[in-house]
Specification:
By secondary structure, this protein is mainly beta. It is built from three helices and eight strands.
Length: 193
């Protein structure tokens, strides 16, 4: 007489019960793992490198002021005055606001900067008129023989104005004095000069 015995699943290795369906279930539960199953172990380093490259944020570089004009004025001592006009980056044309800087640099006969004075102005314009809303002046001294005597900044109408008085010393005596006035203007269309 033959005896029919029921299968006893607990006697068989667990690997026989866990098939492809369980593996796919885990991958579906964790979407990231389902992507990894598409790659072999040999492709894993390449996938990791690509992932890291995409994860690293790219540096954002700030916009630099635009140089509008540069003027060179020869001086009697063999040096020059270099006048540079720059315009700050404009985020949107709809603002109808312009900011710029006019810098006067005193250079000696060798081309070295002795000192520089920068007048910054901010303007609003509407196509019919322009108005200066703020002005400021800064001085940068490179040569120790030069000293700042005074500086001032103002605004009137569509102009930013500034003035510096620079003096050069030798053994505590003034041997040279320069009074430099700077004017920065804005046209009704927003052009700086």
């Amino acid at each position: 007489t033959s005896t029919i015995r029921a299968l006893e699943p607990w006697k068989y290795p667990k690997s026989l019960h866990q098939g492809k369906n369980e593996k796919n279930g885990i991958a579906e539960a964790i979407p990231f793992l389902s992507c990894l199953t598409m790659f072999s172990y040999r492709e894993a380093p390449l996938f990791t490198a690509c992932f890291l490259i995409l994860a690293v944020p790219l540096p954002v570089y700030a916009q630099q002021p635009e140089i509008i004009s540069t003027e060179i004025i020869p001086q009697a001592d063999g040096g020059v005055l270099e006048i540079t006009l720059t315009q700050d980056p404009v985020s949107t044309r709809a603002t109808q606001t312009k900011s710029g800087t006019k810098t006067v640099s005193k250079k000696n006969a060798s081309g070295q900067v002795m000192w520089s004075a920068s007048l910054k102005g901010t303007f609003t314009y509407d196509g019919k008129k322009a108005t200066c809303t703020s002005s400021s002046i800064t001085v940068n001294i490179r040569a120790t023989s030069w000293k700042l005597s005074s500086k001032s900044a103002g605004k009137t109408g569509n102009k930013a104005t500034g003035k510096v008085v620079m003096k050069q010393y030798y053994q505590n005596s003034v041997i040279d004095s320069v009074t430099q006035s700077i004017t920065l203007s804005c046209s009704p269309s927003g052009a700086l000069s």
